[in-house]
C-alpha cells in the first residue's frame, strides 16, 4: 500500500513541475524548495519499499514504520490535490469570465477579476505552504529512521504493459474431478428420485479451496444438463443464510421482470416461486451454504416442492451438518484432496506450461511446490499463476523457500499461496485488490464499476485519463488470473465477479474506507461518523433514511472523501434532498445517488465538484434535470431509469465523457436535443436513446459498441427522418431498434458490417424485412412484433433478383456468421421462403432457431435443414406444432436429425391476450 502511494505522489509531483500550479509555489517564499525536498525524500524512501513490504509480514516494527509512511503520504496527497484543484478551478473561472466578456463585447479586465479575491488567495497559499512544510518535516523523520532497518535498495518490476482490452478471463478447467462430475450429472439426469422426492437434493461437501463451486459450474453448464431442465437457477448463498434474499434471487433468475422480487415479505416471495415453478422441471444451485436452521430451510423448500418430478437442488457447502439438516446425506458427494500428480498438472496449467516439456531442473521444484498445496485445487491454481512470468530457476527456488510457508497465524493452506501471489503483484495492483475489502463477503460487482471506483482513488496510474480504463482492465484480468476474483461471468460484456475477502480490524484514526451495511437510526451514526475524519470512501448499503438523511451534515465534514455511495434506498427510505454543503467535498471523484426515487433535484453546488469523474443517478425516477456545466472532469454519467429527466444541462460541453448509459430527447425546446451529443466522440460501451423530438444528429461514435434506439414520436415521417440521420459508426457491434414507425429501415442498417447482435422490435409499419443477410458479422438476430410482415422472402436473405437465376455464377453467402435466430410475436406472418441455387449458401453457422407466437406461419423453409442447426424451439405456433410434431407431423422427418427440439403447446394462449398493442 505505502509503495503504491509513494509512486502516485512522485508522479503527481513530476506533473506539477510542468504545470501552471508550479507558478503558485513561487508566489510563497520557500515553498518551491519544500516541494523539491518532498520529492527527494520520497525517492529515497521509494528505493527500499519493496524490501519493506516483504519484511512487514514478519517484523512488527517495519509494519508500524510503513503505516506511518502511509498516513503521511495520504495527507501529502490531500494537500497537493487541494492546491491543484483550487488553481485549476480559478483558471477555468477566469477563462469563462473572459469568454463571456468577449461574447457580450464588453471590456473585461483580468486584473480586476484577480484583485477581487487577491487577499483570499494569499491566505490560502500561506495555509497550504504551512501544511507542506509540516508534512515535509514528518516525511524527513521517516526517511531518517529507515536507516535503522537496514533495508535493501531494490527496484520494482515495471508496471503491466498497456494492452488492448480483452475478455480472455480464466477458463474453467478441472483436474482429477471427472468421476465426481459424471456421478453428479447422472444424478441430475436420472428419471428416478428417492421415493419420488421433489426436489431431490444433492450436496457437494468439501473444505474451502477444494473446488466445489468450480465443479458445480461445470455440471451446471454441461450441454446435457442445460437441455434437460426447463429452468436453471444459480444463487450464491454465503453466510448468513437469509431466506428472503435467496427467494428474491430465485425469482430474479426465473423471471427478471417479476415485480414480486422486490418484496421483503417471505410469504409473498414463496407464493411467487410456487407459481413460477409449477409443473416445471428445474435445477437450482445453492452455492456456498453455511448455516441455515431447520425452520429457515423448511420455509425455503416448501414452494420448491411444486416443481415437476425430476427437479433437483445442487448444494455446495463446507459442512456435512448442512447435508444432514437437508436430509440429503444419502446423495452427498464428498470432495477429497487431489493427488500430488493432479495438483502438479493443475499447477503447470496455471503457469501456462506444457507439463510434458518442463525443463528438468524445474521439475523437482515444481513437484515440491505442488506438494505444498496439500491437495487443494485453488492453491495449485494460484501458485501456478504466480509462476506464469517467472522463468528463472532462482525465482522458483525463492517461492519454495519463502518464509510465508512458516507463518503460524495463517492456518488455512489456501491462504499462504494467495499471500505469496499478493506480494508478487505490482504496488498499484495490490492497492486495487485491497480496496475490495470495502465490499461485504460474496458481493457481486460489475467490472466497469469497480474500475471507476479504483479511478476515484487515483489507483490507476496513467498520464492520460483516457488510458485509465485500459489500465484498470489489465489490473482486473491480472487479479482474476491469480484467483483473487472468482465466479467470473465472461458471457456478458460487463463481467461480474465475486470476491471473498477478510475484513481487517484497524484503529479508527487510520480508517480510510468505510462501508455501512444495514445501518439504522440506532447505530448513532451522527456521533460515530465524525471520528473518521480521514475517510476517503463512504458507502452505505441497504441502510435506512434514518441513518443517513439526518446526518448529512456530518458526511459533508469528511473533507477527504473521494468516493461517496448513498444508493439503492427506495420508498420511504429514499433521500429527498442533498444539501448545498456537498460542494465542500472538493476531492470527490465518485458520487452514487442511485435508487433515491424521491430525489427531485440536485443542489447547484454539485456543479462546483471540479474533480468529479463518475456520477451515478440510476433509478432516481423523480429527477427532472441535472446541471453538469461545471463538471469538466466528468467521465462517466449514469442516468438510466430516470423517466422524468428531460434535461442534462451542459452535456454538450463534456467532450471527454466516456460513458453515458441513457439519453432522453423530449418534445419542445426546453429539454435535451440529439445534437447535444454531436461532439461527444469519446463515448464508449452502451447507450440507450429515447427519441420523441428534435431529429437532428449523427450517432457516428467510433468507440460506441452498443446502441439502443427507442422511437417515441408516433410519427412515420419524423421517425424516418431521425433514422436516416442516425447513421452509426461502422464499428458498432450491437443495435436494438424499438417502436420505429417508418415503413422501411434506412439503407445504413444493411451495410453495418461490424454488427454482431441485432434486435428489431415493435416496428408496426414495416411491411417487409431489410436485407440483413448481407451483414458479414451478424451472430444473433431477434425480430419481434412486426405485425405488418406477412411474408419473409429472399430480400431478407440479402439476395438480389439476378443472383436467384440458375445461370448466375456469382457465389453468395447469406448470413455468413449467424448463430442464433429468433422470431417472436409475428402475428401476421404466414410465409417464409428461401431459394434453391447451388451458388448461394444460407446461414452456414446457424445453431439455434426459436419461433414464438407465430400463429399463422405455415411452414419453415427447407434451407434450414441444410444448416448445422443444434436447437429448435417452437412455442405457441399451432400450425408449426402440428406440422413438426414428433412421429406424427407431416414434416417431422425433416427436423428429426436436430439434437435438441422443443415444441410447446400453445392451446392455452390466444393472440392479443398479452396486450401487445
TrEMBL record:
Domain R13L1/DRL21-like LRR repeat region: start-end pairs: 674-784
Parts forming coiled coils: 28-55
Pfam family, one: WHD_DRP
NB-ARC domain span: 185-352
Disease resistance N-terminal domain segment(s): 6-96
Molecular function (Gene Ontology), one example: hydrolase activity
Matches recorded under InterPro entries: Apaf_helical, LRR_dom_sf, LRR_R13L1-DRL21, NB-ARC, P-loop_NTPase, RX-like_CC, Rx_N, WH-like_DNA-bd_sf
Protein's name in the database: Putative P-loop containing nucleoside triphosphate hydrolase, leucine-rich repeat domain, L
Amino acid at each position: 500500500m505505502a509503495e503504491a502511494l509513494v509512486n502516485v505522489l512522485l508522479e503527481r509531483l513530476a506533473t506539477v513541475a510542468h504545470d501552471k500550479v508550479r507558478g503558485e509555489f513561487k508566489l510563497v517564499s520557500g515553498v518551491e524548495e519544500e516541494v523539491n525536498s518532498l520529492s527527494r525524500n520520497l525517492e529515497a524512501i521509494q528505493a527500499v519499499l519493496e524490501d519493506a513490504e516483504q519484511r512487514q509480514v514478519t517484523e512488527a516494527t517495519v509494519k508500524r514504520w510503513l503505516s506511518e509512511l502511509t498516513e503521511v503520504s495520504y495527507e501529502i496527497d490531500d494537500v497537493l490535490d487541494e492546491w491543484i484543484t483550487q488553481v485549476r478551478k480559478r483558471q477555468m473561472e477566469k477563462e469563462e469570465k473572459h469568454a463571456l466578456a468577449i461574447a457580450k463585447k464588453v471590456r473585461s479586465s483580468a486584473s480586476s477579476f484577480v484583485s477581487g479575491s487577491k487577499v483570499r488567495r494569499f491566505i490560502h497559499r500561506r495555509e497550504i505552504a504551512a501544511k507542506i512544510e509540516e508534512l515535509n518535516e514528518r516525511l524527513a523523520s521517516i526517511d531518517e529512521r529507515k536507516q535503522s532497518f537496514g533495508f535493501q535498495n531494490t527496484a520494482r518490476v515495471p508496471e503491466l504493459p498497456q494492452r488492448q482490452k480483452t475478455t480472455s478471463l480464466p477458463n474453467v478447467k478441472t483436474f482429477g474431478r471427472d468421476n465426481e462430475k459424471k456421478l453428479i450429472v447422472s444424478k441430475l439426469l436420472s428419471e428416478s428420485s428417492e421415493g419420488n422426492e421433489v426436489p431431490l437434493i444433492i450436496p457437494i461437501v468439501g473444505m474451502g479451496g477444494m473446488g466445489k463451486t468450480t465443479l458445480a459450474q461445470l455440471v451446471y453448464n454441461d450441454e446435457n444438463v442445460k437441455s434437460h431442465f426447463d429452468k436453471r437457477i444459480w444463487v450464491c448463498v454465503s453466510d448468513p443464510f437469509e431466506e428472503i434474499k435467496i427467494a428474491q434471487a430465485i425469482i430474479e433468475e426465473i423471471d427478471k421482470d417479476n415485480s414480486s422480487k422486490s418484496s421483503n415479505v417471505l410469504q409473498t416471495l414463496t407464493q411467487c416461486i410456487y407459481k413460477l415453478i409449477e409443473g416445471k422441471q428445474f435445477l437450482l444451485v445453492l452455492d456456498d451454504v453455511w448455516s441455515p436452521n431447520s425452520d429457515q430451510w423448511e420455509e425455503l423448500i416448501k414452494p420448491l416442492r411444486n416443481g415437476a418430478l425430476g427437479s433437483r437442488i445442487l448444494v455446495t457447502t463446507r459442512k456435512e451438518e448442512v447435508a444432514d439438516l437437508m436430509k440429503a446425506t444419502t446423495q452427498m458427494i464428498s470432495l477429497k484432496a487431489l493427488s500430488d500428480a493432479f495438483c502438479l498438472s493443475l499447477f503447470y496449467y496455471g503457469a501456462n506450461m506444457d507439463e510434458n516439456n518442463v525443463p528438468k531442473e524445474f521439475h523437482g521444484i515444481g513437484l515440491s511446490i505442488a506438494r505444498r498445496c496439500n491437495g487443494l485445487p485453488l492453491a495449485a491454481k494460484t501458485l501456478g499463476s504466480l509462476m506464469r512470468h517467472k522463468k528463472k530457476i532462482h525465482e522458483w527456488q525463492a517461492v519454495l523457500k519463502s518464509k510465508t510457508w512458516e507463518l503460524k497465524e495463517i492456518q488455512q493452506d489456501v491462504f499462504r499461496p494467495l499471500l505469496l501471489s499478493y506480494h508478487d503483484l505490482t504496488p498499484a495492483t495490490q492497492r486495487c485488490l485491497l480496496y475490495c475489502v470495502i465490499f461485504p463477503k460474496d458481493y457481486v460487482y460489475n467490472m466497469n464499476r469497480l474500475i471507476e471506483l479504483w479511478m476515484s482513488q487515483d489507483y490507476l496510474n496513467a498520464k492520460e485519463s483516457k488510458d485509465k480504463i485500459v489500465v484498470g482492465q489489465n489490473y482486473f484480468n491480472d487479479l482474476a488470473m491469480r484467483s483473487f476474483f472468482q465466479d467470473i461471468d465472461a458471457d456478458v460484456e460487463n463481467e461480474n465477479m465475486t470476491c471473498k475477502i477478510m475484513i481487517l480490524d484497524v484503529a479508527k484514526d487510520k480508517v480510510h474506507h468505510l462501508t455501512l451495511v444495514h445501518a439504522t437510526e440506532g447505530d448513532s451514526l451522527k456521533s460515530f461518523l465524525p471520528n473518521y475524519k480521514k475517510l476517503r470512501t463512504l458507502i452505505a448499503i441497504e441502510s435506512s433514511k434514518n441513518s443517513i438523511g439526518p446526518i448529512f451534515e456530518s458526511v459533508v465534514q469528511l473533507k477527504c472523501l473521494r468516493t461517496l455511495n448513498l444508493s439503492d434506498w427506495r420508498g420511504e427510505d429514499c433521500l429527498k434532498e442533498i444539501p448545498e454543503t456537498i460542494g465542500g467535498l472538493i476531492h470527490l471523484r465518485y458520487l452514487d445517488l442511485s435508487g433515491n426515487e424521491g430525489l427531485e433535484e440536485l443542489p447547484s453546488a454539485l456543479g462546483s465538484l471540479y474533480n468529479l469523474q463518475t456520477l451515478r443517478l440510476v433509478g432516481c425516477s423523480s429527477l427532472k434535470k441535472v446541471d453538469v456545466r461545471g463538471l469538466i472532469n466528468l467521465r462517466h454519467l449514469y442516468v438510466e431509469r430516470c423517466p422524468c429527466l428531460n434535461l442534462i444541462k451542459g452535456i454538450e460541453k463534456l467532450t471527454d465523457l466516456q460513458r453515458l448509459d441513457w439519453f432522453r430527447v423530449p418534445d419542445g425546446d426546453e429539454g435535451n436535443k440529439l445534437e447535444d451529443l454531436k461532439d461527444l466522440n469519446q463515448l464508449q460501451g452502451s447507450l440507450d436513446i429515447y427519441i420523441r423530438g428534435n431529429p437532428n444528429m449523427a450517432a457516428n461514435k467510433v468507440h460506441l459498441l452498443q446502441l439502443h434506439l427507442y422511437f417515441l414520436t408516433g410519427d412515420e415521417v419524423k421517425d424516418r427522418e431521425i433514422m436516416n440521420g442516425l447513421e452509426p459508426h461502422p464499428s458498432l457491434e450491437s443495435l436494438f431498434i424499438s417502436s420505429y414507425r417508418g415503413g422501411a429501415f434506412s439503407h445504413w442498417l444493411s451495410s453495418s458490417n461490424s454488427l454482431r447482435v441485432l434486435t428489431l422490435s415493435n416496428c408496426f409499419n414495416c411491411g417487409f424485412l431489410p436485407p440483413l443477410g448481407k451483414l458479414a458479422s451478424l451472430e444473433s438476430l431477434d425480430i419481434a412484433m412486426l405485425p405488418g410482415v406477412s411474408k419473409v422472402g429472399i430480400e431478407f436473405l440479402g439476395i438480389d433478383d439476378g443472383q436467384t437465376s440458375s445461370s448466375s455464377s456469382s457465389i453468395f453467402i447469406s448470413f455468413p456468421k449467424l448463430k442464433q435466430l429468433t422470431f417472436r410475436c409475428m402475428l401476421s406472418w404466414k410465409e417464409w421462403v428461401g431459394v434453391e441455387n447451388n451458388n448461394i449458401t444460407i446461414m452456414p453457422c446457424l445453431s439455434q432457431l426459436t419461433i414464438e407466437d407465430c400463429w399463422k406461419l405455415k411452414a419453415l423453409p427447407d434451407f434450414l435443414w441444410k444448416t448445422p442447426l443444434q436447437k429448435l424451439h417452437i412455442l405457441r405456433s399451432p400450425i408449426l406444432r402440428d406440422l413438426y410434431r414428433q412421429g406424427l407431423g407431416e414434416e417431422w422427418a425433416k427436423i428429426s436429425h436436430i439434437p435438441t427440439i422443443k415444441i410447446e403447446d400453445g392451446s392455452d394462449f390466444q393472440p392479443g391476450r398479452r396486450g401487445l398493442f
